[in-house]
Write a structure and sequence with these properties.
By secondary structure, the protein is α/β, with parallel strands linked by helices. The chain has 13 helices and eleven strands.
Length: 345
């Protein structure tokens, strides 16, 4: 009997030999607008096994503009983004907090949470029951990135070094909101939660491991704990070279990590994490995805397969199609993964 998408993902996460490798293709508006027909064909041939849920949040009066349209965009926290590239989210140029002590300027958007939790839960659970995909919660905690949006990246980095007590107070305000979201979502039928923060530069972490452990690891553990207490799987995304925190993400209960494995020593990553966590992608979007030579994409698949693949599970075929992506490359990548599985590598 064929396994459903939900069963395939769950068997992958538990190393219980899924019928095939799970799939999850990401794409930005800049790609979907430029290559609509290619994207349609790709998703018809290789539909994602991960799904989302109807929006049950209330609209925020703070939001203005469109995150992926050139110009100014204000998000639900009141953070102002300046966007100069169509189809890609912009950057914060005018921080909400001019000083680290301006905690009163942090206003988490509690007003966006469902007005009626029971009704919202029913909508979610009905949609879940109508789908055979692995369904993710409709929220995404990102405490470090949110603090950067509020304070500005340069200021946030300085605050970590100079004002540890003040930053703990500010981060708690952000963390409390995310925990409130997770308290709701983990009582629904969804299969997993997702959180993110970009921690890696090209060669190492942005901050010291000790600093990461002090400020952020406890928050991530809270996310994992509430998820596991309610029978949910935990997914995380982090760009850059994050080799030094892989073991600790496994330790706190992360089930699947979306990371730039091509920025890291893949053999070292394999020693640390193969068989202990699911590699939720990704194929290198810096050099491979934009390449005009699709053989480079097939070679990239073989590199991951040689070092990280196990037919019992542990890999989700994932990549992101963004600016500069070759529209033929995703077909080559997915076709090659199909060959790898047929060969039983």
């Amino acid at each position: 009997m064929n396994q459903t998408s939900r069963e395939i993902v769950k068997n992958c996460l538990t190393f219980n030999t899924p019928q095939r490798m799970p799939r999850d293709i990401w794409y930005l508006p800049c790609f979907s607008k430029k290559y609509p027909e290619q994207l349609k064909k790709l998703l018809e041939k290789y539909p994602s096994d991960l799904g989302s849920i109807p929006n049950v949040y209330r609209a925020s009066k703070k939001v203005k503009g469109d995150a992926y349209v050139s110009g100014e965009y204000i998000d639900e926290w009141g953070c102002e983004f300046t966007n100069i590239h169509e189809g890609i989210i912009g950057e914060v140029k005018n921080p909400l907090m001019e000083e680290i002590t301006d905690f009163n300027k942090i206003t988490p958007p509690y007003e966006m949470l469902p007005a009626n939790y029971a009704k919202a839960r029913d909508i979610i659970n009905r949609a879940y029951g109508d789908s055979d995909k692995f369904i993710m919660a409709g929220c995404c905690p990102r405490p470090w990135e949110r603090f950067q949006f509020i304070r500005g990246t340069e200021n946030a980095m300085m605050d970590l070094a100079l004002y540890p007590e003040e930053i703990e107070t500010a981060l708690k305000k952000v963390h409390d909101f995310y925990m409130k979201e997770l308290e709701f979502w983990t009582t629904t039928d969804v299969d997993g939660i997702f959180f993110m923060d970009d921690w890696g530069a090209q060669k190492d972490l942005l901050i010291s491991c000790d600093m990461w452990r002090r400020f952020f690891k406890p928050m991530y553990k809270d996310y994992c704990d509430i998820a596991k207490a309610n029978g949910k799987n935990v997914f995380m995304h982090s760009d850059g070279n994050i080799t030094r925190i892989y073991k600790e993400l496994i330790e706190i209960g992360v089930d699947a990590i979306n990371s730039q494995v091509f920025c890291m020593d893949m053999e070292e990553v394999a020693k640390l994490a193969k068989g202990k966590i699911t590699f939720w992608g990704e194929i290198d979007r810096q050099h491979v995805i934009p390449s005009k030579d699709t053989q480079i994409g097939r070679d990239a698949v073989r590199t991951i397969a040689k070092k990280l693949y196990d037919s019992k599970g542990g890999i989700i075929s994932q990549f992101e199609l963004g600016p500069g992506a070759n529209p033929e490359m995703p077909f080559a990548i997915m076709d090659e993964w199909k060959k790898v599985q047929a060969e039983g590598e």
